[in-house]
Amino acid sequence: MATNGIGVSVRRKEDKRFLIGKGNYTDDINVVGQTYAIFVRSPHAHATINNIDTTDAEAAAGVVAVFTGDDLAADGIAPLICGVTVTSDDGEPHRAPAHPALAQGKVNYVGDHVAIVIAETLAQAKDAAEKVEVDYGILPAVTDTASAADEGQQQIHEAAPNNICFNWPLGDKQAVEAAFASAHKISTLDLVNNRMVTNPMEPRAALGEYNTGTEEITLHLTTQNPHLHRLVLSAFNQLAPEHKLRIVSTDVGGGFGAKIFIYAEELVVGWACRKVNRPVKWTSDRTEAFLSDAHGRDHVTSAEMALDEDGKFLAMRVMTRANVGAYLSTFGTMVPSYLYAFLFAGQYTTPLIYSEVKAVFTNTAPVDASRGAGRPEATFLLERLVDVAAADMGLDPVEIRRRNFIPVDAFPYQTPVVQCYDSGDYNAALDKALALADYDGFGARAEEAKSRGMLRGIGLSSYVEACGIAPSAAVGQLGAGVGLWESAQVRFNPTGNVQVFTGAHSNGQGHETTFAQLITELLGVPIEDVEVIHGDTAKTQFGMGTYGSRSLAVGGVAIAKACEKLIAKGKKIAAHALEAAEGDIEFADGNFTIAGTDKAMNIAEVAFNAYVPHSYPEGLEPGFDENAFFDPLNFSFPAGTHVCEVEVDPDTGVVEIIKYSAVDDFGKLINPMIVEGQVHGGIAHGVGQALLEGCRYDSEGQLITASFMDYAMPRADNVPNFDIDYAPTNPPDNPLGVKGCGEAGAIAAPPAVINAITNALGVKHIDMPATPENVWRAAQGAA
Amino acid sequence: MYDFSYHNPDSVAGAVSAMNKAEDGKFVAGGQTMLPTMKHRLASPSDIIVLGGIAELSGITVDGDSISIGAMTTHAEVAASSDVQAMIPALAALAANIGDPAVRNCGTIGGSVANNDPAADYPAAVIALGATVKTSKREISADDFFTGMFETALEEDELITAISFPKADAAAYMKFENPASRYAIVGVFVAKTGDDVRVGITGATPCAHRGMRLEGVLNSNFSGDALESVEIPVDKMNADIHASAEYRAHLVKVMTRRAVAACS
Amino acid sequence: MPVINLRVNGNPVSGEVEARTLLVQFLRDNLRLTGTHVGCDTSQCGACVVLMDGKSVKSCTMLAMMADDCDVTTIEGLANGSELHRMQQAFMDNHGLQCGFCTPGMIMSALDIVERNGNDLDEATIRRELTGNICRCTGYHNIVKAVKAGAKAMGD
Question: Is any Cβ of chain C less than 8 angstroms from the Cβ of A635?
């Protein structure tokens, strides 16, 4: 093993700059002559715009310009797009009402963008924004997911009758009905998957600069995928030709999905900097983030499981209403469809599954991916339903899971819902998790708690997820407008150090370390001689970015492929330099050696030689710099079992997480320290969803939870230390043997926590967030 | 934030004078509530009169059986004060659990009491301990001070100089926190001096108030069991996304019971 | 415009500010000390925590003029040349940061915690004392570990 290679918990290379205050986040960047932008936003959830009067604002102190939707349209700037098509049950593509970056005659949610005010200072922009007079014709608002498509509801978009975006069935309805008809028992569950605000700690920002000489726009953005931004802004929004648009994303302060999407502010700032020929800077404040970042989840679901007399799952049926918000965000259609229903098999052999997802428009912020994206929704309903079924059958939750697990020898396993799982050993993870959680000792702990008047509960979540989001062929079949491979370039400099250019883009995951470890492992270069470069379309080759736990599983493999090419080329160079046959050259630990001799060249010497090719024969190309693309054959399927133990105070309903144990299969770990950190963060995110976080609109479409004063984020005292272990399997389709790890915690934790609470209270279900009042009420009902 | 004129007087008289000259002035103590309000442009005072430079407003002094806390004394200073800890430990504990450490390093007792946020902690203690609010003009008894939501007996140009808390034989504060803001959803301060029990309740209603029904019962039987019979009027309770009126009423009882237990 | 004079990271600085200028704006915009971050507008997240006269404050909830004549320490003022402060080192050693955005505030708060509670901190104390700092990445596990280790190292 290389000193800092695969499997070593190397301290992070990127940490120093963050620790000394030298991180470089988008809002930290200032350029000469920059102006400041403020967006005038709709205070109404649903209204026509009868008139916009910008006269007073334009005349206000320091104002450079005020623009509205008409100005954008006049310059041919096209509306925002949704990049994935879902076919509705009528055979038509999903309904995609126009999503103008600045409103065209109508606003559809509180926070919708009406105008941009650009001024010399931020305070002046804010002052002037208040002077933009908008005459609204207020319309009734639709905010409730369950009833948005009901008869007689207020219509939001002409292009979407009954507020329906799509109605998407999956599976064999008749076969499922037949299985239910002959079932021994049918377990049912109605649930809500609560709406969340993703809330990376760094608010979004955009800083646009236009160079009149080169006619290039440079747009500094808080994005997880700079090239995707450039592609969409160029190809679809007509901002600028792709080669005249540079997206720079320096350090990104967390994303969790919220920074995937192409947002109105980004497009408008990019356009406006050219229009006013001054740099324009916009930084979201937290209130704006609550209003206009794409939100997550928001499902209302009924689910049923048919069981035989042994507790084997015969069939499952799921009916979901999914809120996509006022407009479709970039991946708004994909999250409640493919990323959701394709996971309904979970870890189980359920042979028949039928689901219908009705996606509805409402007068709320667009809903899109948020850590886990669809998979937490699937896992929550399935793992809750399994516990309900266990209770119905009089089986222990562990036992019913074991009876239905996909056996270890069944992989690769084709589920009835499209996905074919790569590898897994679900019993191994379960066994380890039960041991870690001391499941057998729970009874005694519950008794002890009871003596103190407290209720203890323990809950399991045996999840599987599909991540490493890629196979272009798969997503193409599903209606995605892009491929989902990843790219890498590994460049040796003449002095032997290495620059790795990746199309992935860290927003906190530690790529600069993990990817450098790959280089160290594969090429034998000391880790301090490796620099990972990402986040700038002018520096790195096209890439697809970071989301869906794909950076290592897809982007890491692209790096490995580039390394293979370097080794192959290095053998040619070494053979020439050492005057040996290429076939006699072996590579190991950074050295090219003539087999059976001690004649060798270090890879750094090979690199130097490659750039000083004084006597190269014809056909031997100079340079030591290779690129590679990797498009995997399949998603990767991390899985595991998480066990949560809670104590409930029946007097107040307060839930304390006493112990949280997680055993995951992420395949091979490159940097265990980083993986563990990803799991911790994911679990806390999931605990947040389960106990604290609930985004709420009132019936008029006002966002009630528009700040951290009302939207409860998990704090240090809301979570315990986590007990983490692994039960790895080897995914045959991934050349590095890795699976993604960034979302697992957020996917697994919500049902583990809620199953623990229902166990403590002896109730069938409790909706998230299980706030003290909700829990107290459930406890009252149970008493 | 709208712009304003900034004043930094070094005396109470100077502060009052600045206020009287201002068109729409505001005293700012620690600023931990005022500044966020102004940042959201929900308040637009013409003049800000900061009180941080007035030495006479700070400090903690013991005077026989009572302890006087200067208006500009921070929550952190109250929490850490050995005098407060010795004399009314429940008050030190209350201060130690307001907001978070950075807020406690700035926020002041005078600012909190003058603002009278319906979910602030201090008003419960002021009421339960029967404190006296000393101002630039007069002394106001706790029972007369809090007049409504964000409203007090203070006049426009009147500022709190100190709050004097009489020692109690036993006292405890129980707070049920809002998980987001960490303000009190319900906070109950119980103080017992001799046979006299006073209960101050915050968070539950639009303005902190005395729990007269609870006091009535506890005066004759200072035990949690005695509280079972007390009806907490649900229709008087606040209701929001964090807690319904019914739940708040329930919490008033639970927090009172726990505070009584902590007193004994 | 009014002028303020203060010491930031030991260096005397002065600057013209509007009355409404927040301390964090002064630090970030006037002094270009961008290590102090703004993560919310309601004093909840703690990304903006700095030390003022040795005590942690939220620089987004303080007017720049209130810092006149004060000593302010930001994250940029902790390391000694290339040598990290022991608390910074503890965050690195314990993987107490991911995206790094909340980190400066976490570290400044941690120093205040050590100042008030000493070098031997238990987990419950650290968790309670960190409630004014929100992190979305780490789940706090490693931050708690880092603060504990950093506190101990500061006492050695």
Answer: no
The verdict on A339 and A451 lying in the same domain is yes
pLDDT tens by residue, B73-126 = 999 999 999 999 999 999 999 999 999 999 999 999 999 999 999 999 999 999
Contact C136 A680 (CB under 8 A): no
In a domain, A283, yes or no: no
**A662 shares a domain with A517:** no
The rounded distance, in Å, linking the Cα atoms of A287 and A252 is 19
Examine the domain organization and report whether A333 and A373 are in the same domain. Answer: yes
Answer yes or no: do B50 and C2 touch at CB < 8 A.
Answer: no
pLDDT range class, residue B181, cuts 50, 70, 90: very high
Contacts of A696 in chain B (CB under 8 A): 241
**C130 and A CB contact within 8 Å:** yes
Q: Could you tell me the residue ranges of all domains in chain B? A: 5-49, 58-166, 170-263
| B27 Cα to chain C: minimum distance (Å) | 13
CB-based contact, A62 to chain C, within 8 Å:
no
Which of B33, B103, B251, B260 best tests the A interface by mutation, with the highest count of A CBs <10 A? B251
The CATH homologous superfamily to which domain B170-263 belongs is: CO dehydrogenase flavoprotein, C-terminal domain (3.30.390.50)
Asked if the structure places residue A445 within a domain, the reply is yes
Q: Which residues of B sit within 8 Å Cβ distance of A?
A: 1-3, 40-41, 176, 178-181, 241-244, 247, 250-251, 254
Helix (H/G/I), strand (E/B), else coil: A433: helix
Q: In sequence order, what DSSP letters do the residues of A91-158 get, joined into one string?
A: SSBPP-----SS-SSEE-STT-EEEEEEESSHHHHHHHHTT-EEEEEE------TTTTTSTTPPP--T
Residues A639, A724, single domain; the answer is: yes
What is the CATH topology of the domain spanning B58-166? 3.30.465
Residue A150 neighbours by CB under 8 Å, 6+ apart? none
Q: Which residues of C touch B182 (CB under 8 A)?
A: 131
Could you tell me if A407 and A541 lie in one domain? Answer: no
CB interface of C with A, residues 66-125, below 8 Å: 74-76, 78-79, 84, 88, 91-93, 95, 97-104, 107, 123
List the domains of chain C with CATH numbers.
3-77 (3.10.20.30), 86-155 (1.10.150.120)
Across chain A, which has 783 residues, the per-10-residue mean pLDDT values are 86 97 98 97 98 98 98 97 95 97 97 98 96 98 97 96 97 97 98 98 98 98 97 97 98 97 98 98 97 98 98 98 98 96 97 98 98 97 98 98 98 94 97 98 98 98 89 81 88 97 94 96 97 96 89 92 97 96 96 96 97 93 95 92 98 98 97 97 98 97 97 98 97 92 96 98 97 95 69
pLDDT tens by residue, A256-292? 999 999 999 999 999 999 999 999 999 999 999 999 9
pLDDT, residue A1, reads: 46
pLDDT at B217 > cutoff 80: yes
Domain that holds residue A116: 31-139+208-253+259-277
CATH of the domain at A432: 3.30.365.10
Smallest CA–CA separation between C112 and chain B, in Å? 8
Please indicate, yes or no, whether residues A68 and A120 belong to a single structural domain of this protein: yes
- Residues from chain A that touch C31, judged by Cβ atoms under 8 A, are none
Q: Cβ of A201 and C135 within 8 Å?
A: yes
Whether A395 is covered by a domain: the verdict is yes
Amino acid present at B259: A
Look at residue A175 and tell me if it is in a domain. Answer: no
B vs C: CB pairs below 8 A: 82
Same domain for A708 and A734? yes
A11 contacts on C by Cβ (under 8 Å): 92-93, 95
Q: Do C112 and B102 touch (CB under 8 A)?
A: yes
Residue where one domain finishes, among candidates A576, A604, A630? A630
Of B1, B179, B251, the CB nearest to A712: B179
CA gap A318, A302 in Å, rounded:
6
Do A416 and A556 belong to one domain? no
Quick check: ipTM above 0.90? yes
